[in-house]
């Protein structure tokens, strides 16, 4: 059973709301001439993680996206940013329509920060918290018209793996604000690099089953309002557990990366530096 908190009621709701095997998700970005910013990418990331979690629980999913009427260069920048963050492209993208026909039948509506309420629309509503750089960190506002070279340059300078931004945001419950600082981004980048190297090392050992307690815990926290931060904490623990063989650590990280989308097996089979 997959449950998530409906913003309208504050209660956990089972999804999908009817017994079927297709979960329909609609991500809503704010209407109007407001530009695209990191908060919008975070909403898309939450929709992506929800779809991945649903698939882990045996559900097929389909994601829709409603956007402002973006000029071509902003639409391309949004596509590049989604690709850089490992967000699976939506099945359908459409411009906001007053009657909400594109997403009227969606099971879950994921709303970016400051998206207007749509009380007439059915399904579960998820409001995603704010996300942006620390005030004065890079002198760039959260929401801006950023056609080129890409939206992620608001927080991630050239040469920084965009998936470090994904990891940083995944470390926070989706409702809470995320402030992206250079220190937090560097920590995420370093952890991501360390994990990829460990996964490459563990891949050289015989495969072993994922520990039952770890698998059960991961399923439980993901099914309970998308507890992704708890999954990241579980991986920190697994990496240091002496009772878990290297092959089991590899299988655990590879399996949970299906939800995390951090490309943790990137270094498998490649020459890599020894950890220092």
Short description:
The protein is an alpha/beta fold. The chain has helices at 38-56, 72-84, 162-170, 182-202, 212-223, 228-240, 246-260, and strands at 2-5, 12-15, 22-28, 36-37, 60-67, 92-95, 108-111, 124-127, 131-133, 143-144, 178-180. Helix 3 (162-170) crosses helix 4 (182-202).
Unreliable stretches (pLDDT < 50, length at least 5) are 138-149, 272-276
Biggest sheet strand line-up: 6-5-3-7-8
The tally of strands reads 11
- What is the radius of gyration computed over CA atoms, rounded to a whole number of angstroms? 19 Å
Report the average pLDDT across residues. Answer: 85
Gap from first CA to last CA: 42 Å
Per DSSP, what share of the residues sits in E-state strands of 2 or more residues?
15-25%
What would you say this structure looks like, in words?
This protein has helices spanning 38-56, 72-84, 162-170, 182-202, 212-223, 228-240, 246-260, and strands at residues 2-5, 12-15, 22-28, 36-37, 60-67, 92-95, 108-111, 124-127, 131-133, 143-144, 178-180. The protein is of the alpha/beta class and 276 residues long. The longest helix is centred in the C-terminal third of the chain and has 21 residues, at 182-202. It starts with a strand and ends in a 16-residue tail after the last helix.
